[in-house]
Amino acid sequence: MTRGIVLLLVLIAALMLASIAYGDHPLAWGDLFGEDPEAQMIILDLRLPRALLALLVGMGLAVAGAIAQAILRNPLADPGILGINAGAALAAMLLIVMLDGPSIQSLAIAGFAGAAVTAGALHVLSWRNGTTSTRIILIGIGLSAFAGAATTLLTAFGDIHDVQRAMIWLAGSVYHADWSSVRFLALWLISPLALAFIAARELDLIRFGDAAALSLGQRADLIRGLMIFLCTLLSGAAVAAAGLIGFVGLIAPHMARRLVGPAHARLLPMAALIGAALVMAADLLGRSVIAPAQLPAGITTALIGAPFFGYLLWRQRHVTA
Amino acid sequence: MSSLIGADESERARQLALAGLCLALIPLTLWAAASGTASVSLGDVVDAIVAFDGSREHLVVTSLRLPRVLAGLLAGSALAVAGAIMQAVTGNPLAAPDLLGVNAGAAAAVVAAMSLLGVGSQSALVWYAFAGAASAAAIVFMLGSFGRSGATPLKLVLAGAVLTACLSSLTTALLIYDQATFDSVRLWTAGSLSGRSMADIGAIAPYILTGLAAALLFRRHLMTLSLGAEAARSLGQNPLLWRGFAVVLVVLLAGGAVALTGPIGFVGLVIPHIARLTAGVDYRWIIPFSAAGGALAVVLADTLGRILFAIQSFPVGVSLALLGAPFFIWLARRFRGHGR
After folding, report:
1. Which label site among A14, A101, B279, B284 has the fewest CB atoms less than 10 Å from its CB?
2. ipTM for the whole complex
3. Can you give the pTM of this predicted structure?
4. Is residue B5 part of a domain?
């Protein structure tokens, strides 16, 4: 555990340095800490906020994914199951197709609003004398399908230029990072992340099933509702800041589980670090592999994460369950 | 788990319901073939099938309407049955046929063929899609079968989710930089029944029909498989063998369907759930109910979509989810499972 965390921290630090040093305008290592005003401008205004935004987005998504997998008791769950991605995509798509070139800020607000509305609707619709994880999953499927179909409709019949612009936003990227978005996201994420870590034991309990959780004194419905709320805050904000970066919320918790086991007190921090490293590495790869053009981080995340996850599966091939 | 038809009620209710569903397909098919921009009477539709005379109405029916309806029937029941099989094998309510990477593989192959090789004809794309779907599923099965425990459901679905994410990233990466291909492929990716010829259907139908027949024939074994590896083993079944068999069926069914109509979502995931919520948890019933219900849902949604939105190329995947999702949510709200 400690060794894993130290290794990941070193990896994140290395990724941070590489993200700062590497780019269209290569900087010598000496420039990183020098007095050159041009280099300082590039580092402080462009590369550092971008790397930090990637780090924060990765942490938020990974923790949200771990929470979703615990409360839904389903290894395939990710924040997307709660309708968050589909809702954010629909809201952003509507804005892009209806308005002429909406600003990044308005897209972020629309994305978060769409995510929050769908997650809220999900909870209301699945409430019938309490919720059950199966009902949440089923209704989440229905809501996501509905919002997804509306988005596809806009994709198929909207103006091709608008649709393509929307697709880049939907693919998820941290191109437009600046200090104000980094500060905002950092402040926003602090309390839900802290609450999730405090609630690690509740997550352990609810994973065993409602009957076990209730008999151990947990108010399962209340916890599930609160956790859906936390999940929405975390991944809704990440989506608002960076568009739809899929895969992290699904895979980072699985990687963490394979490294430190299922107890959430250890799983959550590990998943957060893995998520941060994944998105940072994805962004770095995305902007260097076909430079000067850039691939959105949401695309490269899967390309980096998939082989590594395949390796983890291979290494643990003899472990049952 | 509750259902609208309780276990205490006779098998007869289910048999009647299934027969009713199948019978409903006949008037639906005729109605779907009759409705469209050029008005054709129901009598003409019947005549065109049984006594073709080469008139304009008959040509419209045989070359445009019927292929569309047939594609809908085939793809609908194939996807729904493939979804039911996936849910039986993995025991996961989130499992859909595309979880084996079938849709993502087909989409990646179609986009690569259009963008890199310049393939444009619909009939050629059918084979690219089928090959893409089959190879993606083969890779998922190999990745998921690492190790002594073989293809466990958890490893399979994770490998499928990972490969799907990876392939769709590659597809998106190609499309972001190739507007022309994106423009021509975006209707395909929504799943559409328009513009299919009888030749396309003739090429794909054998695979789908084989898959359907095998699924119906071996539904008892699929039921046993859905009980989990231990129960299956104690009933004398080799779960590893049958899981492999189930994957082959899903490739035939879902691969054929995606080749024919593009990735139609929703059917494969939701129709088996609807079958379970109405006919109970027994896969011996879920599979035939899914086959009939999937065909019904796709053709109904396609025809309603054409009428309501007055666009002939309206993607069936969209109308299906727009019309079907509210119904499904209503149905799922009635579900009273506890502690699961």
Report:
1. A101
2. 0.77
3. 0.81
4. no
